[in-house]
């Protein structure tokens, strides 16, 4: 089936540094999402993105977070500066259209460790 | 609020035994909830197992079934006879038909099937 690729699978950085998580969504999909899962907790919605704009974001999507998809390439999540509480697994997802009945296609996640 | 609660894992069953993973939801701000089961196999991203968008309907896939019960706000996942290849993490999710879709995920239930 369609695949979403996330690069890298694991990243370790020092607190205060910038990090960019990359996602290669399914090629004909139009909606893109980031979710965050802290170990032992629910996977929680961060943001969704369509037509070059953030459509919705949660309270977890702090001012230090930003997303973009320049030139239709990777869909990226940037955190600048990072904090210890940003340590989590970040999942990217895409879907052909928006809406709460839509199927999301997920990547395998990027484990971010902030030291 | 809107949330999903599912069976705490890990769950271990023997091959050919039956399985039920419980899922209940709270949809206080969602007028028309959609319900999903996703599965994550080792090293892969979440993938849709089944979904039901109409209350009272049953979804099925790969021998798994789940019925959307609005009265009990439940969407339990069942399989009559599990196989070793069913070992994975299962996520129940709630979606909002009328929004740009914020999905609410359960914590996930890790299933190990012993041959």
Structural class of chain B: mainly beta
| Number of E-state strands of chain A | 11
Topology as H/E string of chain A? Answer: EEEEEEEEEEE
The run of helices and strands of chain B is EEEEEEEEEEEE
How far apart lie the N and C ends of chain B? 40 Å
Terminal CA distance of chain A: 36 Å
Q: What percentage of amino acids of chain A are in beta strands?
A: over 45%
Helix content of chain A: under 10%
Structure description:
The complex is a heterodimer of chains A (115) and B (115). Chain A is mainly beta. Chain A has no helices and 11 strands. Chain A has strands at residues 5-7, 10-13, 19-24, 31-37, 43-50, 53-57, 65-68, 75-79, 88-95, 105-106, 110-114. The N and C termini of chain A lie far apart (36 Å). In chain B, strands 2, 5, 6, 10, 11 and 12 form a 6-stranded mixed beta sheet that branches. Helix content of chain B is 0%, strand content 51%. The chains are: A mainly beta (115), B mainly beta (115). The interface between A and B is medium-sized, with 31 and 31 residues.
Which descriptors apply to this entry?
heterodimer, A: 115 residues, mainly beta, seven-stranded mixed β-sheet, four-stranded antiparallel β-sheet, 0% helix, B: 115 residues, six-stranded mixed β-sheet, 51% strand, globular
Would you kindly provide a brief summary of this structure?
The complex is a heterodimer of chains A (115) and B (115). Chain A is mainly β and 115 residues long.
Question: What's the SSE blueprint?
Answer:
The complex is a heterodimer of chains A (115) and B (115).
Chain A: E1 5-7, E2 10-13, E3 19-24, E4 31-37, E5 43-50, E6 53-57, E7 65-68, E8 75-79, E9 88-95, E10 105-106, E11 110-114
Parallel strand pairs in A: 2-11
Antiparallel strand pairs in A: 1-3, 3-8, 4-5, 4-9, 5-6, 7-8, 9-10, 9-11
Chain B: E1 2-6, E2 11-14, E3 19-21, E4 23-27, E5 33-40, E6 47-52, E7 58-61, E8 64-67, E9 77-79, E10 88-96, E11 104-105, E12 109-114
Parallel strand pairs in B: 2-12
Antiparallel strand pairs in B: 1-4, 3-9, 5-6, 5-10, 7-8, 8-9, 10-11, 10-12
């Amino acid at each position: 089936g369609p695949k979403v690729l996330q690069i890298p699978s694991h990243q370790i950085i020092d607190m205060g540094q910038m990090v960019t998580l990359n996602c290669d969504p399914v090629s004909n999909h139009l909606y893109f999402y980031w979710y965050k899962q802290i170990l032992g907790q629910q996977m929680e919605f961060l943001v969704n993105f369509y037509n070059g704009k953030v459509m919705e974001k949660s309270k977890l999507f702090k001012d230090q977070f930003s997303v973009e998809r320049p030139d239709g390439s990777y869909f990226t999540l940037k955190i600048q500066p990072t904090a210890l509480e940003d340590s989590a697994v970040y999942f990217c997802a895409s879907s052909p259209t928006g809406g709460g009945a839509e199927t999301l296609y997920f990547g395998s996640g990027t484990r971010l460790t902030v030291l | 609020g809107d949330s999903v609660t599912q069976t705490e894992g890990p769950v271990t069953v023997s091959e050919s035994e039956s399985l039920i993973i419980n899922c209940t939801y709270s949809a206080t701000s969602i007028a028309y909830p959609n319900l999903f089961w996703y599965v994550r196999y080792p090293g892969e991203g979440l993938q849709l197992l089944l979904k039901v968008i109409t209350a009272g309907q049953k979804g099925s896939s790969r021998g798994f079934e789940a019925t959307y019960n609005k009265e009990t706000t439940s969407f339990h996942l069942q399989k009559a006879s599990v196989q070793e290849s069913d070992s994975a993490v299962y996520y129940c999710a709630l979606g909002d038909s009328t929004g740009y879709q914020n999905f609410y995920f359960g914590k996930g239930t890790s299933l190990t099937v012993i041959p």
